[in-house]
Amino acid sequence: MHQPLVFIDGDQGTTGLLIHARLHGRDDLRLLTLPDSERKDPQRRAEAINSADVAILCLPDDAARQAVAAIANPQVRVIDASSAHRTTAGWVYGLPELDEQQAERIAQAKRVSNPGCYPTGAIALLRPLVAAGLVPADYPLTVNAVSGYSGGGRAAVERHETPGVQAPQGVLVYGLNLDHKHVPEIQQHAGLSQRPVFVPSYGSYRQGIALTIALQTRLLPPGVSAARLHDCLRQHYHGSRYVQVAALEHGETAPMLDPQAVNDSNDLRLAVFANEAHGQVLLTAVFDNLGKGASGAAVQNLELMLAAMG
């Protein structure tokens, strides 16, 4: 039986290390990683990527583009965990729950772009609602989200976890120039005709995202209520292995969101909260930025590819 060869390029970064950990010890595939002395050798990296059945790129954007450009073997399949190709024509967006056909598209694709962490939550909430006509494509949306500091990559983790280094505490809001690189990804894959406002932040905890999107029912099509929005999401994700839609919550019964509630999993927990007296709805997503927001999603996409390869 052929054991597919999987090459992780950039396996010393936060995402790469976790992907390696998730795949380590499996007997249905072979893992290829480069020793320290070869990781920055362009020729050795090109040889490795061209020898692989599937290459998973855990690299900065420019390095990911260079790695793809070095592929000469037409049989090599790529999962790119960077943001280099998330809106690039010819690449399949690696969110299997996007629609009914997306998992099969990923399974057959040669080039898959892993979603960004924040966009995973925003698109999972918005795409079904926009596609169903319940949220207008030109709705003036604002996406607010807080992530654990690991969302800032290896440097942020070291800053917070190195003894004797004073790291920022509390919550730091960034992206204040309203030009975050995730915005085009959210707009394109959520089916929006206008740019949403995106306000991200980092908290002084390691991992986990809480993302919220507020809606005014007066700006929605006539007859669209929180119940209809919730029902649309519930139907879209019915039977999904990793995406759960919580029961509709009203008023004082609504709990607080814990961004760390599903850490160390590939789960994505969606919910709809409503205050009908005020005509307001809140869409929420909770997930692990290192799980469904990164390494978990990459492994989920790899599983689809491996199943198709037989």
UniProtKB/TrEMBL annotation:
Entry EC no(s): 1.2.1.38
SMART domains for the chain: Semialdhyde_dh (SM00859)
Gene Ontology BP terms: L-arginine biosynthetic process
GO CC annotations on file: cytoplasm
Active site feature: C117
InterPro entries hit by this protein: AGPR (IPR050085), AGPR_AS (IPR023013), AGPR_dimerisation_dom (IPR058924), AGPR_type-2 (IPR010136), NAD(P)-bd_dom_sf (IPR036291), Semialdehyde_DH_NAD-bd (IPR000534)
Name of one Pfam family that matches: Semialdhyde_dh
Catalytically driven reaction(s): N-acetyl-L-glutamate 5-semialdehyde + phosphate + NADP(+) = N-acetyl-L-glutamyl 5-phosphate + NADPH + H(+)
Alphabetized GO MF terms: N-acetyl-gamma-glutamyl-phosphate reductase activity; NAD binding
Keywords for the protein's UniProt record, in alphabetical order: Amino-acid biosynthesis, Arginine biosynthesis, Cytoplasm, NADP, Oxidoreductase
Annotated localization: Cytoplasm
Pathway: Amino-acid biosynthesis; L-arginine biosynthesis; N(2)-acetyl-L-ornithine from L-glutamate: step 3/4
Enzyme class: oxidoreductase
Start and end residues of each Semialdehyde dehydrogenase NAD-binding domain: 5-106
UniProt-listed PROSITE patterns: ARGC
Keyword Magnesium tagged: no
Family statement drawn from the similarity comment of this UniProt entry: Belongs to the NAGSA dehydrogenase family. Type 2 subfamily.
Function description: Catalyzes the NADPH-dependent reduction of N-acetyl-5-glutamyl phosphate to yield N-acetyl-L-glutamate 5-semialdehyde.
Protein name from the UniProt record: N-acetyl-gamma-glutamyl-phosphate reductase
The organism's taxonomic lineage, starting at the top: Bacteria, Pseudomonadati, Pseudomonadota, Gammaproteobacteria, Pseudomonadales
Gene giving rise to this polypeptide: argC
